[in-house]
Amino acid sequence: MLKILVIHGPNLDILGAREPKIYGRITLKEINSKLLKLAKEKKVGLEIIQSNHEGRIVDLIGKSKDKFKAILINPAAYTHTSVAIRDAISACGLPAVEVHLSNIYSREEFRHNSLIAPVAKGQISGFGENSYLLGLLAVLKLLGPQK
Amino acid sequence: MLKILVIHGPNLDILGAREPKIYGRITLKEINSKLLKLAKEKKVGLEIIQSNHEGRIVDLIGKSKDKFKAILINPAAYTHTSVAIRDAISACGLPAVEVHLSNIYSREEFRHNSLIAPVAKGQISGFGENSYLLGLLAVLKLLGPQK
Amino acid sequence: MLKILVIHGPNLDILGAREPKIYGRITLKEINSKLLKLAKEKKVGLEIIQSNHEGRIVDLIGKSKDKFKAILINPAAYTHTSVAIRDAISACGLPAVEVHLSNIYSREEFRHNSLIAPVAKGQISGFGENSYLLGLLAVLKLLGPQK
Amino acid sequence: MLKILVIHGPNLDILGAREPKIYGRITLKEINSKLLKLAKEKKVGLEIIQSNHEGRIVDLIGKSKDKFKAILINPAAYTHTSVAIRDAISACGLPAVEVHLSNIYSREEFRHNSLIAPVAKGQISGFGENSYLLGLLAVLKLLGPQK
Amino acid sequence: MLKILVIHGPNLDILGAREPKIYGRITLKEINSKLLKLAKEKKVGLEIIQSNHEGRIVDLIGKSKDKFKAILINPAAYTHTSVAIRDAISACGLPAVEVHLSNIYSREEFRHNSLIAPVAKGQISGFGENSYLLGLLAVLKLLGPQK
Amino acid sequence: MLKILVIHGPNLDILGAREPKIYGRITLKEINSKLLKLAKEKKVGLEIIQSNHEGRIVDLIGKSKDKFKAILINPAAYTHTSVAIRDAISACGLPAVEVHLSNIYSREEFRHNSLIAPVAKGQISGFGENSYLLGLLAVLKLLGPQK
Amino acid sequence: MLKILVIHGPNLDILGAREPKIYGRITLKEINSKLLKLAKEKKVGLEIIQSNHEGRIVDLIGKSKDKFKAILINPAAYTHTSVAIRDAISACGLPAVEVHLSNIYSREEFRHNSLIAPVAKGQISGFGENSYLLGLLAVLKLLGPQK
Amino acid sequence: MLKILVIHGPNLDILGAREPKIYGRITLKEINSKLLKLAKEKKVGLEIIQSNHEGRIVDLIGKSKDKFKAILINPAAYTHTSVAIRDAISACGLPAVEVHLSNIYSREEFRHNSLIAPVAKGQISGFGENSYLLGLLAVLKLLGPQK
Amino acid sequence: MLKILVIHGPNLDILGAREPKIYGRITLKEINSKLLKLAKEKKVGLEIIQSNHEGRIVDLIGKSKDKFKAILINPAAYTHTSVAIRDAISACGLPAVEVHLSNIYSREEFRHNSLIAPVAKGQISGFGENSYLLGLLAVLKLLGPQK
Amino acid sequence: MLKILVIHGPNLDILGAREPKIYGRITLKEINSKLLKLAKEKKVGLEIIQSNHEGRIVDLIGKSKDKFKAILINPAAYTHTSVAIRDAISACGLPAVEVHLSNIYSREEFRHNSLIAPVAKGQISGFGENSYLLGLLAVLKLLGPQK
Amino acid sequence: MLKILVIHGPNLDILGAREPKIYGRITLKEINSKLLKLAKEKKVGLEIIQSNHEGRIVDLIGKSKDKFKAILINPAAYTHTSVAIRDAISACGLPAVEVHLSNIYSREEFRHNSLIAPVAKGQISGFGENSYLLGLLAVLKLLGPQK
Amino acid sequence: MLKILVIHGPNLDILGAREPKIYGRITLKEINSKLLKLAKEKKVGLEIIQSNHEGRIVDLIGKSKDKFKAILINPAAYTHTSVAIRDAISACGLPAVEVHLSNIYSREEFRHNSLIAPVAKGQISGFGENSYLLGLLAVLKLLGPQK
Question: Which residue of A58, C16, F50, K63 sits 20 to 30 Å from the alpha carbon of L80, by its own alpha carbon?
């Protein structure tokens, strides 16, 4: 079965508690349930990981090539500062889709620039938890029909 | 029935013929068919318009409020230059979703900045014609279940 | 009788409905009435046009020379993006007064720069509909007493 | 009787003698006469002060609250350099109108930026002495009809 | 017979009347006569259009592919602001030559940057009406000898 | 008893040995003793942690909400590069005080910008180990008298 | 007895009345009482001066060397614009501590840069009146134990 | 007979061998032949010089006034770095036409800025060797009919 | 007798005591003696004033026209921040020579820009007290031989 | 025996598999063999570590002082983003040599700036695995002959 | 006898003929006569050289150390572009005085920056040929009384 | 025998005398001896040239193709200003290695940017004369084993 690596970046572990005006009240657990439900419908497997450690995210992506077919990633704060994650994505060779809960373009200036976007296939931002679900659909479109 | 205004910005009328390495070989007519098919499935109506005229796009958005519930727009070149379309979207009050065929963040520097994004609900870029389909799904998520 | 060309730029057709916190609740029709009433008092004629089309505004200014003595313009969004309107004003040779409903200097950074101001005689911003009325008085001062 | 504080910034004491190509041949005394005449017509009182001292202008604005209903100010050179006057205006809470004799947007680059404009209600520039008269009318419009 | 599309951008309709110190006293009609005379000598056909509308210029270029072999364009004010015309030129696939009456590099800073130049074959500026005639010769050189 | 989380960022473990001209000869152990002594006097508890790992600092802050009432942090090098720690502080909701041993404004240009300061309550820099002690007093002032 | 010069910069005379959301409701008189009380406890003398005049602040600092051992200064608006005060501090040779009521790093961009900080010993910002009290403690730490 | 000075800047001596994808396979000798043939047709004399030395190009232009009527120059790399050549052209008072083999606006960012263009009459770039031939025609147009 | 106004800007009153590594050990009194001695030799009168107040310097320059023939000014810190002094110099119409004790171009970046230089006749910097003496000679050269 | 710490930064663990057009086909294991062989020849010891974790690299450098005489580091992606590693190198006091496989100056703009270079002794980039070998030789030259 | 090297940079050979509005009508020969006359009075020797070649100026400065005691240089266009001349001056160790005929700060933006000034002792600009004479006096002041 | 062209840029002729704190006390003659000794060991020939003339360096590189297999260059000051040398290197097609005595990244800002680096194979900086020796080794590695 086709497997997809889902990565949640820093501070997403406390989602729901964290600034609900920007990020909503949904928790990461609830998002993961929704993702798993959709994955089940679409008959793909997911491995979901959250980490606050840039290095660990780089480790994961570096080892993803044989086990996964694609990456769905919300790099959160590392979107704007991590060349290492950017290099990992472009090095691993898997198609990656970047998602954001909030519309990063209507927030502070420094959040308008994504170091990840140029090496991702595409980017989806602003739809809350639906950014993830649309992102998973986008991944499936990119991979095309599987035998 | 819930109606959504779909706007294709400048040069999208010649899609398919236009730089296929960047935009793919699909034509606008084919994208529209796919959008209409998905809309039918989802039981929403679409009004689809293409224009190369910034002023006409502003006219359309200005008059959209009573007839439509949301806007799905690929502002194309006007993404980077039109304060008028930005103001129209923010003036009309309808939720808008911005889509792009190509990943604008892996292209020329001047395409990295969207004047539209800060007033849109969210942005989807890089998935070819699927950006539109995901965008329509995003619109439906934003509007929530309809009675 | 002395005639003045009054131009309302993009999105001003939906004034009143549009973001009342920034632009107030007055409609364009009401502004025009106030302008016409003042013009009548001052014994000058007005021709008032609203357009969302940059090209049409350029057309109008280009043909204004013989028929009008001055231009009163709220370029709205085109203030910040239209070199074409700037060139039209400077080419037609008529004195022009630039007005804005809102104080553009207390809004987003990109609204602080006017491409029109350097070729206008002067600029009035921040007084709501009174910007237009003060602008008309300014035009009359510029033209001086008429025989 | 409603009283308005009128402040003339640095170098305006030598108006008329000073670079007449930019500022015209009118003297400050003549401008003040015109302002007082208009004030009389409109039945408002004016207190008019000129100072070359940033600190003195800050002093005046700081003590203006109880005695005046509004401020009409030509900050001249301090327009571009004085955070202190900006803070004074925003601290005193009175509505302020900023005026300029010349069109600051058609002069040197560094004159295009006003530190005062974001805390003023509005700005009028480019109409010579008429900028003051229009500015006084604008103040009266802002204050609305007085009982 | 080989046909070339000639496009005159905004404000060129009033040439001759417009700021003669910068643009000279020649009218667009006279330039067109000179162009047609040269075209006749060189045995090529011209279709000459002037428009103040960015959208209309995009329309024309979008439909030019089958009828024309090359484009000769003076984008005027749109040189500096139109990504849409840039995209149209690069989408249509025809070789384009960009011309300017005045030397844009000895004018205001904002006129030094051409959005069109990177997608044109070459650029000619500063020779008044001769920029057009040299531009037409350049087009013919680019197309090479025709059978 | 009221508890405060004290975080020492990267390279502070080798304080004393590290560039004494900039950071002084005091060791982290000595600073901690001074902090604990002051905390004892003020009857508050401290939990003191040093880490060179951005991710670990994010982890700690993310879990701080229930156990602590405030954060005292010297983000050291991460001051200038970590959006993740900034987001963690703003997400956890606790008041945070940012301290620096050296005066970061008299050092290299890139050290003048703090990503943390906009989400901290306040910042104290330049007083060597006393920055920490003053920072702890500042925390206590922010929390107000405890019952 | 050890004496310290305390300088309050422009607009601090109207504290309490001035934008309480940013600066709180405390008056300068109340801050001065708190400072004097703390000074008395610590057995140091204070001379406290408020001025809106940059030149007067420069005068004071220029003459401070013989009478005072240190300077505690809230340069307010002059923080961002006064090279003269910066030069005065660095010329007089006394250690100076810069304080701010509000967190200048969470306000407008132009307030993020302090011309004073590079020549001060340290900076404390964001703790309301406590910034002054902490600042006085910092001064005493800098001066060390007095005989 | 009317004489024109033709200057080839640095590295043009190895044309043909040099990066043919950018500069084509034509040699400088061949370009010179074409120029001389056209000059003969037009009955003007040419003096053609190539130099890699900025100083020598300045020498030549400095002494050109009496012997020549105009300058045709491809400043090559010195286009972007030589204020000395710019000053020489503007000092000698002869009309100068700047040409480039490649389209400098579709190359690296630093090649988009010409220090020479503001003092030249006009610029022609992007047409390979034809840039020179068109440049010679432009020179003749500038000089007008000769007796 | 020809009279020249000599203005010493802020912090020059404490020269000699102030950072001798940058400004030397000479006092203002000694510089003034040297200036007066040279003036006597050259048979011109001097009026010498030092002020830390920008406003007072503006006052002085504004009233200088009738009494003086030229201005010799060391604007010190106001060199970099005072548009008001710049405007005063350009308004008064007298030729002004700007001098600096230190070489402002080998100091901090912000000292490289002089707001005064563009309206002065010339600038002399870096020669310690000799900058003043050379400056006085320069003034005399500018005024030419006096009868 | 003299020992040198060799640090490989993020993503270097997957070298060989990673974008061979940029980084070549050699693996990290092969590079390490070459390094160890050269070290043996030169009679120095190496400790070689690869980590994707910025914090771990900081830990290692912080503890390197007693055990090692120098550091050879390829900071990879952290070259451009890690102030923490920069501070660690400058804090530990050991001479460090920075190496890069690819020529970072012919890649994306953001890779042209190294935060590490200013605190390293020197930098070698662009020679593939030979960058490391040359780097080791450079380290030995820096340390000079060992007894 | 004390000898001073005088260097005239590019295009100064054609002074007098060159743009007299900016540079005056005096020729280099006349300036040199004036310099030699003053040198004779002051009993110093001069060696005067003009060159348009950056490399030759570097050669001269590089060999100046033994023969000369100081350098008087008008680097002209190379002021703004030559790091090589800057390095030569700072390498040779002789005191250098930089002079300019025109006031470089009232001309084009790019002329405001001098690469030479930071390594010169001082700079004199704007006094026409008197800049040289004042410059020679400045050199003598720097060298102090000679035995 | 394989021959390599070694180019020393401006001011390197006076090495040893020149600012020894930055460049060391070694002379160019000594560096050349070391280079020739190493070349002899490695059985390659060297042709070593020093020039202060940008144009001469361009001449040399332009004619290097047939006689040499690679270039070893220390462009010195021209590193930061010479597009001509950059173009020469990229035109000649030989592999080039750029070396610097000092660490250019720990010096003035303007020395951080190399115009040469993007067209060189690699860069070595900061190791004094060893930069050259390592550079020669790098050249040999690039050329690979010779038959």
Answer: K63
Task: Output DSSP code: residue F42.
Answer: H
pLDDT of amino acid L16: 85
**I16-20: long-range contacts, CB 8 A cutoff, minimum separation 24:** I17/G65, I17/G91, I17/G93, I18/G91, I18/G92, I19/G90, I19/G91
The predicted pLDDT at position C147 comes to 57
**CATH number for the domain that contains residue B73:** 3.40.50.9100
* Amino acid sitting at position L43: K
Strand intervals (E) in L1-147? 3-8, 45-50, 70-74, 96-100, 122-125
Least confident range from C16-20, D30-34, F129-133, L32-36: namely C16-20
Q: Which chains touch E (3 or more CB pairs under 8 A)?
A: B, C, H
Give pLDDT tens digits for C86-133: 999 999 999 999 999 999 999 999 999 999 999 999 999 999 999 999
| SS3 of residue E2 by DSSP | coil
- pLDDT over 70 (residue G147): no
Residue H48 sits in which domain range?
3-143
| Residue C40 contacts E where some CB pair is shorter than 8 Å | no
Q: What is the pLDDT of residues G95-145, one digit of tens each?
A: 999 999 999 999 999 999 999 999 999 999 999 999 999 999 999 999 988
**What phi, psi does C93 have (nearest 5°)?**
80, -5
Which pLDDT band holds residue C1 (cuts at 50, 70, 90)?
Answer: confident
- Per the CB < 8 A criterion, the answer to whether G110 and G80 are in contact is yes
User: Complex ipTM, two decimals?
Assistant: 0.94
| Total tally of structural domains belonging to chain F | 1
pLDDT at C145: 81
Contact J125, J99 (CB under 8 A): yes
Pair B24, B128: CB distance under 8 Å: yes
C-alpha angle L123-L125-L130 in degrees, rounded to nearest 5: 110
Return the structure tokens found at I96: 């002004």
Quick check: C46 and C70 in contact, CB under 8 A? no
Task: State yes or no: is D100 an active-site residue.
Answer: yes
Structure tokens at L131: 């930069």
Any chain E CB within 8 A of the CB of H130? yes
Q: Which residue blocks in chain G are alpha helix, DSSP H?
A: 20-23, 28-42, 54-62, 83-92, 129-143
Nearest residue to E76 via CA among C60, C90, C8, H101: C90
Nearest residue to C81 via CA among C111, C119, C55, C106: C111
State how far the Cα of D75 lies from the Cα of D98, in Å rounded to an integer: 7
- CB-CB: which of C112, C123, C127 is closest to D141? C127
**Beta bridge pairs of residue F72:** F6, F97
Straight-line distance from the first to the last Cα atom of chain I, in angstroms, rounded to the nearest whole number: 10
| Interstrand relation of K70-74 and K45-50 (parallel, antiparallel or unpaired) | unpaired
Among the partner residues A55, A88, A90, nearest to J55 by beta-carbon distance: A55
Q: Which band of pLDDT confidence, cut at 50, 70 and 90, is reported for residue H147?
A: low
Compute the nearest-CA separation of F27 from chain G (Å): 18
What is the average pLDDT value for chain D, to the nearest integer?
95
